[in-house]
Design goal:
single chain; 476 residues; alpha+beta; 4-stranded mixed beta sheet; 23 strands; 26% helix; 26% strand
Length: 476
Amino acid sequence: MNNSIDYRVQPGGHLSGRIRVPGDKSISHRSVMLGSLAEGKTEVTGLLEGEDVLSTLGAFRAMGVHAEGPTHGRLVIHGVGLHGLKPPADPLDMGNSGTAMRLMAGLVAGQAFNAVLIGDESLSKRPMKRVADPLAMMGARIETAEGGRPPLRIQGGQKLRGIDYQMPMASAQVKSCLLLAGLFAEGETRVTEPAPTRDHTERMLRGFGYDVRVAARAEEQGPAKRDATGESPQGRRQLGVSGGQDTTEAAGRTVSLRGGGHLRGGRLDVPADISSATFFLVGASIAPGSDLLLEHVGINPTRIGVINILRLMGADLSLENPRDVGGEPVADIRVRHARLRGIDIPLDQVPLAIDEFPALFIAAACADGKTTLRGAEELRVKESDRIAVMAHGLQALGIQAQETPDGIVIHGGPLQGGTVDSDGDHRIAMSFAIAALRASGPITVRDCKNVDTSFPGFVELAARVGLRIESRTGKD
């Protein structure tokens, strides 16, 4: 029998002080991947040491990459170059991480050896045809399980060719997968997104010295234009490109690169994860008396939907000490309690906040009036069906929440105590934990073990700033 973890959170309280949440998970994944494929040494600081990222690191170690650490967020990777990976002796276990599996599929498709990508029970239910199909168009040979689910069986030694791919959905994982495959492909790989998605892969590729071009969608018939980012200094340098153009056109963008280049190692500092900061942004917003400073948070323009949405709801958020760290914009975020109001969430903000909606649903439950979310079908194929699981949990706490096929309608009101099931979803577990700040009774959150995939130390950090939370271990 496996140990299960539940959270027991007492009602009330407020959040105060100053904290730094763990490193950005998306950037941490990519730093391990690109550092492994680079020539020379890459030193990463601020790395998220969560289970998802450690699964990615373990996969590259299984393919012959030597890495020292991570220790206190520092990892030194001795890159093997684009063609230096070795055949793994066993299947590559991506754990709970959809990001790792989808990006790794593109990367492994260009290798000379066969590989099998597997994951845990939750990951094994997630759709992979969205990457397998376009990779097949590039010449990859990938077999999936029934329904396009993992495991992925990838046959090496295939000749990949660049394609011009119009993504049917806004997905940074699909875009990144194809760009990574494009490193190994003949010719140019062009990926056009229907709406803006996080652009960490493009930024980091440029930081590793790779020529990546980005154009607004309206320009896609003309020559692809480079962002006004300048050139990376040669030799040992800070990875990333300072002064990157913050393009978040509502129509999306076309990203292109040509195969056959090289990645060069260097130094990379991972900012704090805005997705992890979100639980505290919402918690401080809904709890009277709160005044909290979150330090060194990444505010990449393709990730700040949560800030934009909370501000539309009336949140008191301010960005202090804005700066650029390795090509990624960073700031300290100060948040104080405010009276929130329900809104119709703008469609153009949905892809910019896709991972933050479980916590935003808690903000909506504490707001005056009705909040409506549309255009978020992607939430149904995350670590859980986040629309259904959040709706059921909110209803258990006395909130009116109606599912729609592509979203949810939440009527703000008094939160009761009660028991909710996270369905093994780390973001849902943390979201219902912060809901206790406004509840009339204790909240018990079941099945919280997977929180360590993205936020190791969540309970201790949350308790330090005022959440009355304890973790309980039992048997499944």
